[in-house]
Structure formats: structure tokens, C-alpha cells
Amino acid sequence: MQLPDGPDVNIFGDRIKASYAMARAAIDVLKTTPAGQTILLATGKTMLEFYPALIRIAQEQSVDLTSFNYGHLDNYVWRPSSYPNGPGDEDFIKYLKKYFLEPAKIPEDHFYPINGLTEKPDLIAKKYNEWLSTQKIVAVFLGLGPAPEVHLAYIKEGTSLDKGVHHVFLSAITVARNVGRGEKVPTEAITVGLANIKQAANKFVLAIGKTEEVRLALTGPITNNVVATALRTEGFKETVHAYLDKASAEYLR
Fold it and tell me: 203-228: buried (b, 16+ CB within 10 Å) or exposed (e) per residue?
């Protein structure tokens, strides 16, 4: 269905069906996309069914995923002074290699990582923003962060729409969520900004078990205190396609 103020929303009975539906929609776009364009990848539990579905459908429909370039949305800042043994298992480069890049056989030179192993995160952010500004981004895959800020990537509440890749200290809500999961991760990150997401020709959003987050993002007041409400603003909403499980869509139905 089309929401009154924007995004196309698709509702499915469970997480598997929602994941496969978004994968099919993404492959439909990639079928007609010239090689060499860029896809921005998300991480997190929400994407665990999506990436295998994307790879499987690409194989079934003879879409060559290795013909595209890949970036991603964010990564923790693993300062060598605090992490002398390098990034932990929660590093998002490790995640993407395990769940997408290696299973899809993406060549190493087609992946442009956000290297969080640095004492100079602002410099890494600047260089990544410069790289993204040169790319034609065909698609970005997004999940929704926890309420009430409902971040996209690790973009914090109050961030302007014209902000590019930047260094952030994670919000108290995000830190509490990570601690609750038992994750021993940094409290700093490098994240894309809303300007980088806006650059993508297609914005695919997957929400699984995110009832409150979807309510705030898609039905609440548009405000930069709820980051994902940006998806309903001009320049975003025309190209946003949301895929929800039934639980997430409670307030839409």
C-alpha cells in the first residue's frame, strides 16, 4: 500500500516472506542496472534471512551480483589503543564477509569497507564520504534502529538531512541495546548520513518485529528526533519501499 505521505509499504505474514519479497524486488531492479553501480549494505539480525534470499534469487534469475560495487552503512570505531588485537567479532566488515560477500563470491576489489580500526575516525569518514560522492548508488538496504530515535545506520537524532558520512558517539539507547545483547563493542562509530542515503535510487527498508519503530517512523510526526521519519520527506519517499512482517505493521493495518 502507499502511505498518504509517502513510502510504498508491503506487509507479509512473517520475516521469511518479507525478506524474500524484498530480495525479489531488489533483484528486479538489478536486472536492468548496468554493471559498476554501487549497492550499500546493512548489517544486523534483520538482514540474516535477506542476504541468503538475495543470493538465491539472483542465481535463479541469472543476475550477476559480482558485477556491482558494494559499500556499507556503518562500522564501529575500533581504536587500536583500546583494541590492540583488532576488531571484535561484531565488526561489520566481518559480518558482511560472512553473510553476504563470501557466499555471493563478491571480488575483494568490488567491496569498499569502512575501516573502523583507526585512531582517526573523522578522517576515515571524510574519505568514505568522498568515495560515495563519486558513486552511482542503485540501492541501499536499511533496517530500523530502536525506538524512540529509530536510527538509520547509526545516524543520531537531531542530524540534519544534508549530513554525509561522519563520526558519532552512539546514543545511550543504542549503547543500552548493545549491552543488553551481551555485545562488547565500542561506543563510537562511523556512519553514513541522510545525504548519502538520499543519493540511492532505490531505498529498501526491512522491518521485522519492529512495531513501535514502524509506528514512529511511518505514522508519527516528521521530526529529526526520529531519524527514520526522513524516509517520508521529499527526495526520499518517492523511492522508499518498505517490507514489513505482520507484527511490525500493526499500526498501519
Answer: bbbbbbebbbbbbbbbebeeebebbb
3-state SS, one letter per residue, for 42-98 = CCCHHHCCHHHHHHHHHHHCCCCHHHCEEEECEEECCCCCCCCCCCCCCCHHHHHHH
Work out the end-to-end distance of the chain between its first and last CA atoms, rounded to an integer number of angstroms: 10
**Model pLDDT for residues 231-240, shown as the tens digit of each residue:** 999 999 999 9
For 247, which DSSP code?
T
Sequence letter at residue 222: I
What is the structure's pLDDT at 191?
98
Q: Are 158 and 222 in contact (CB under 8 A)?
A: no
Tell me the domains of the chain and their CATH numbers. Answer: 8-245 (3.40.50.1360)
- Looking at residue 253, its pLDDT comes to 66
